[in-house]
Every structure is written in structure tokens, then in C-alpha cells.
Amino acid sequence: MLIKINKLQNNFDQSLEVITSQPDWFNFLKEVETFDFYHTYHYHSIAKSDNETPVLLKYKENDILIGIPLLLRNIPNTIYKDATSVYGYSGPISKNIHKGFDNRHFKKELINYFNKNNIVAVFSRLNPFIKNQNSILNNIGYLTKKGQVVNINIELDLETQKAKIQNRLKTYINKSKKKYSIRFAKTQEDIDDFVDIYYENMDRVGAKNLYYFSKSYFHEIFNSKNYQSEILLAIDNKTGTIISGSQFITTNKIVQYHLSGTKEKYLHLNPTKLLIDEMRIIATHKGCKFFNLGGGLGGKDNDNLFHFKSLFSKDFKDFYLWKFIVNKDIYDELVAKKGIDIKSDYFPLYRIIDDLNLNV
């Protein structure tokens, strides 16, 4: 479904449309300069919760095109809603945004839409590999730097890439190559094995509930025609057992290291390192541009997970969050009704108790 919100003419063509159907969403993605798999309708449809509705806000201003994918959700026991982004790296995508873009008209139409639909607050994780996101959202709420992500510069030749890998990591990779073989997951059974290993990994680290994606989530991503999802499996040469797996998703020459897991018995050599290194080589041969390993837990760039990823590369990219309080009076009222009297950067603050209970 596509709903036109506004249209102005007088040598100035401007409109804001709300896209909710897969065909219209797909057609819009064909118009913009680039996008990641996090921007697709398919990913939104499988990543959303039961109480969330995917929308793509399409803004047109002369030859400029902007799209913001969001998940709308009701605020319980009120007439209000808020909006958030899918798990991963989302934010606006665009066409013909030039340096010094004046976003005043865009901001006005966006706020009009949010107010007409009783949307109190908007949150989105941004994508470090999509251009102009900060310019588009400038002075619309606020942008906060959450941390950094690790990118392997796969535009370099393989030898140059290898030279940038930390020496101790190279040793681990070479040892793993002698013990393990690598192959792609091909069957539904392969995917189920990977999911079981992933769940075991989440149990071991005490992960929050939100990281326990359903089995259908994994199968739908793997079988999607909207992007290329690949799972690399590490096989123990002695037993033929699948002992580790990593999922990588490629869209428009952007490779995302999505999810992974290793059986506890094999953690000492950490075959995930071997799988990432193999994907580095594969992605380079494919002519991809970015290989995002992500950041640390919760977007941190100073924990053990970030340190592990940084052994592959020191090409760090800033990772931003977009937070926008549309209706401050209602926002403050919702916070007060929850009895929240703490200082926190959690957003929106009125959901902190519910979300923490859900995620524990």
C-alpha cells in the first residue's frame, strides 16, 4: 500500500508517501543509489515483532529522493505510537543528496507525518556504509555516536589485507586450517545445525532474549531472493562434525557479518576466525566494497568482542544512533507515568522497564 501525504507544485515538486507493501517497497529500492539488506521489506517482515508494522517513508523533492524504513508500534494503553528500526544497521537511503543539502522541507513534512499519526518518538540505528545519513537527519532530533564498527577494506589486494591482520591472529588461522575444513551450508539440515550451535553460543554467554531469533528467521533469511545470505561452516577433519558457523549477508557490495556460533569444545582455536578470514577472501574475489564485522556488545568499541574483531583490521567506521522526540509533552508524561526517575541514555526512556523485562 502506498499513501500520499502531501504534494506541492509551483516549480517545486514535493511529496511524502507511506509505503507498506512489498512491491512498492521493492520498486523504491531500485530508485535509490544504494541500500543494505537491513533496508529491504523482506528483512523488516521477518525481523519485526508481532506488535510492529513496517513502513517506508518516501520523500521526494524535485530530483531528490529519501526513504526511511521504520517499525511503528503502539504505546500500550494510549492513543500514541513510536517508531524504531530493525535489528542491525538501517537509517535513511537516498538519491541525489548533495553536499550542503537543505533538509528544512524534508524535516517539515516528516514532523507533519509523525504528528498526524500520533508518533511520540523515533529511534533508528544508522548504517556506517550508506552515504549522507547524517546530512539528511541533521537537526531532526539528535545524532549520537554510539561507537565504531570494524571494516575490512576488501578493496585492497589480498596480500595487503593479510599484512594488516594481527600476527597472533594469523597463527590461530593457520592452526585452524590444519584441523578444520570449510564449506557453505546447502541444506535445511545444515541451517538447523547452525541454529543449534548459535543457540548453544547464546546460552553460554547469557545472551538476552532478543538475540534468540526463531528458526524460521534463519531459514527465511537464508532463502531470501532480496539479498545473498551465506552460512560458512567449519568441519572437524577427524570426526566430520560441524563445529562452528558464521552467517554473512551481501547486498550491493556490502558484506555484513551477521550471526555466528561455535561449539564449546572447540573454542580454544576459535574457528570463527577462520570463517571470517575465508569470507574476506571470497568477498574480495566477488569485487565487494565493504566487509562489516560490526562492533562490540551493544555497539561498544572497548570490549573483548570489539578487540577480537579489530585483530582483522584497524579500518574503523563511526556508528551513530538517531533519536527524535516528536512530542516532548507527551514523551515527558509517559516517562512520569512509568515512575521513571533515573538518568539514562536509553531511548525512548518510557520503554526502559518494559524492554528490560522483555530482553532479560
Write a short abstract of this structure:
The chain is of the alpha+beta class. It is built from twelve helices and 14 strands.
Task: Give me the secondary-structure topology.
Elements: E1 2-8, E2 14-19, H1 22-31, H2 41-47, E3 52-61, E4 64-74, E5 81-84, E6 93-95, H3 104-116, E7 119-125, H4 133-137, E8 142-152, H5 158-163, H6 167-179, E9 180-184, H7 188-205, H8 215-222, E10 228-236, E11 242-251, E12 254-262, H9 272-286, E13 290-294, H10 304-310, E14 315-325, H11 328-337, H12 352-359
Commentary on this structure:
The protein has 360 residues and is α+β, with helices and mostly antiparallel strands. It folds into 2 domains: 2-140, Aminopeptidase (3-Layer(aba) Sandwich); 150-318, Gcn5-related N-acetyltransferase (GNAT) (Aminopeptidase), CATH 3.40.630. It has 12 helices and 14 strands. The protein has helices at residues 22-31, 41-47, 104-116, 133-137, 158-163, 167-179, 188-205, 215-222, 272-286, 304-310, 328-337, 352-359; strands spanning 2-8, 14-19, 52-61, 64-74, 81-84, 93-95, 119-125, 142-152, 180-184, 228-236, 242-251, 254-262, 290-294, 315-325. Strands 1, 2, 3, 4, 5, 6, 7, 8, 9, 10, 11, 12, 13 and 14 form a 14-stranded mixed sheet that branches. Residues 356-360 have low confidence and may be disordered.
Q: Characterize the largest beta sheet: strand count, sense, and whether it forms a barrel.
A: 14 strands, mixed
The SSE order reads: EEHHEEEEHEHEHHEHHEEEHEHEHH
What name does CATH use for the topology of the largest domain?
Answer: Aminopeptidase
- The level of helicity is 25-40%
| Separation of the first and last Cα atoms | 36 Å
CATH superfamily of the largest domain: Gcn5-related N-acetyltransferase (GNAT)
Estimate nothing, just give the exact number of structural domains. 2
Structural class: alpha+beta
Look at the structure and give the mean pLDDT. Answer: 93
Number of strands: 14
> Using only CA atoms, what is the Rg?
22 Å
Low-confidence stretches: 356-360
Molecular shape: globular
CATH class of the largest domain: Alpha Beta
* Number of helical stretches of at least 4 residues: 12
DSSP strand (E) fraction? 25-35%
**CATH architectural designation of the largest domain:** 3-Layer(aba) Sandwich
